[in-house]
């Protein structure tokens, strides 16, 4: 009788030695003449337990982790293939508080299904949204998405239904669906984990969007640093057959530019041009890819659509607070004890994520600051850790949730150095089209260097420069660089003395 094991094959697990563990398991099984079937699933998002090995038993899956190559012989000796006792035995992984307390919607199949099997995806609830969409009128699909309260998960938080309705109402012979998978923010892994662990969900969401607006061609723009996500998407597309109907999807690989996460720069890149931000108007929803009406949504946004169709707008809208509806997969990184992915409805607090899930700092020292929303996100001090995870609540304190990436720092961090990093990041990654971003960031690095050298008289100049970048830049690249700089300056002034 064959024994089935699940060992994550996503990039996070591979970096921690998952391939080597699989090779050791196969070698030991052959030595013992055991027949095993290894499924390379997605990661559950608890990176301190990777490589995680789950064994299918009569009582369900039994997990062991973190497993090293040296642990493999003792696992077999303990009869782990039948769920035997071992120091690494975790039992039912979904019963662990870290997972049990979450409310996974978008990520609910990641770590459970075989990401290369369409049949497995359909057996775990996939496909219902697309099947229903085929029986609906386009306007009704758009209305359902609008009523759900879904907003863009890539950072801008723009209402998805409004974007789709604009494309639907724009007359054109050709329309496109573009999935922005250029996940480049520091501390973010949600897009990658979903693409590698549940790619069919993204394909289904895109197909529903196509039915909603009348598109027959789609692109998924994946950052070049995600080769495993790129391979997983292409493997999924190779087996979909006619499941997506007349809708065709092509996967495009980025060229490593952070600015291509901005939607118009991404369109330029897909068209084969240098990734430079476009002027707005026209909006991409009216004149986007190749000058045609285009729906552009982030991976998590697109992946939220199938469940909204299958379970109704109220199902999604009932989660969350205020105008922030549904859930968001938050990602804990940096100096944090339990780094990983936590999907919860809007309405929790930053402190809950950092301590109830993250366990505080990895060093055991007090957490001094966290950056939320990527390299252009604000640095929040401990006094703001009780801020509710809600788009408007964060905007009220001069911050942004962005893509849900959270990077923690303990009390040894130099916040003036972090402010300089933000300016330098903008100077390096700027597309160069507008002066406030291109020149302002370069001058900003120089001004911060003078401040750090003791010239505090330069602080008013730094504030003025941040204002110019905020209100004069063409896109968020320059416009949001002020967030980390000013938050560091306002909340940690002692580091600039």
Based on the model shown, name its key terms.
Glutaredoxin, 5-stranded mixed β-sheet, single chain, Rossmann fold, 4 domains, 497 residues, Ubiquitin-like (UB roll), alpha/beta, 21 helices
Task: Characterize the structure shown.
There is one protein chain. The protein is α/β, with parallel strands linked by helices and 497 residues long. The chain folds into four domains: 3-100, Glutaredoxin; 118-317, NADH-ubiquinone oxidoreductase 51kDa subunit (Rossmann fold, 3-Layer(aba) Sandwich); 320-410, Ubiquitin-like (UB roll) (Roll), CATH 3.10.20.600; 415-496, NADH-ubiquinone oxidoreductase 51kDa subunit, iron-sulphur binding domain (de novo design (two linked rop proteins)). It is built from 21 helices and 16 strands. It has helices at 11-15, 18-31, 72-77, 97-100, 118-123, 128-133, 138-148, 160-169, 190-197, 199-213, 227-237, 263-270, 299-311, 313-317, 350-357, 391-396, 415-429, 435-452, 459-472, 476-479, 482-491, and strands spanning 3-6, 36-39, 53-57, 60-64, 89-91, 176-181, 217-222, 248-253, 294-298, 320-321, 324-325, 327-334, 340-345, 367-372, 379-381, 405-410. The protein has a five-stranded mixed beta sheet, with helices on one face. Strands 13-12-16-14-15 form a five-stranded mixed beta sheet. The protein has a four-stranded parallel beta sheet with strand order 8-7-6-9, with helices on both faces. Helix 7 packs across helix 10 (199-213), helix 9 runs parallel beside helix 11 and helix 18 (435-452) packs antiparallel against helix 19 (459-472). The termini are far apart. The model has no long low-confidence stretch (mean pLDDT 95).
